[in-house]
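WARN retry 2 of 3 for item q-0093 after timeout on previous attempt; input resubmitted unchanged.
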Amino acid sequence: LFRSDPDFELALQSLQAEKQGIELRCVREVGAVTEATVYVPQGKLTYFAKKIQTYLTQDNKDKAGNPTTPKNDRFVRSIADISLAALENLWTDDASLLPPPDQTLWWEVWINSEGERVNLFRQEAAGVGLTVSAQSLRFPDREVLLAFGSLAQFKRSLLLVDILAELRKAKECPTVFLNLRPAEQIAWVEDTLKRIQFSSPAQSFVCLLDTGITHQHPLLNRVADDDRILTCFPQGTAA
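OK item q-0093 returned
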């Protein structure tokens, strides 16, 4: 785990070295401090040790051959602290949402999508009693799955910790509401309206990059003023 000094940026590109198998897993802001969780394979810590040694013993030089700044200056000076990362350091959600170790819930698990890591995660998760969703969401460099269990279960396997890139709390999926019958949707809308306090006049403004908005919907008509709903295509659609 690499930490910056307050209000200083870490040299994040220097924390990753693909040829060494060193990966920048996740970055988060903790107040004014930046924390970067980095996966370092066994035996590869010397990569960073050499960078620091070079900083201490070698200087960059100007065109005349005069020493200027130490080599790796920006990389080393951006780091305030290095420590062994705990599983909690992979948590990139709101810090207040991190549950106690024994509380079971659905987790949003982010894994580097290269190689067989997702399959390894499924196998190892089954071994510690985690329930993993069959579906996943794939991004260019990450694959996201849902897993049910506790933080304590994750910690039972060092391989799981090695595989993980990020952990978050799984959020409620709106698909449940979209699949309701119209009468059931109306009942949810009416119940929600009873618990909403609308400010008057509305103080929020939204730019919606989409095909439009159903502004007469009961949840929107109190805050969506017809006179303020504008479009870049007044004569038709973008098509």
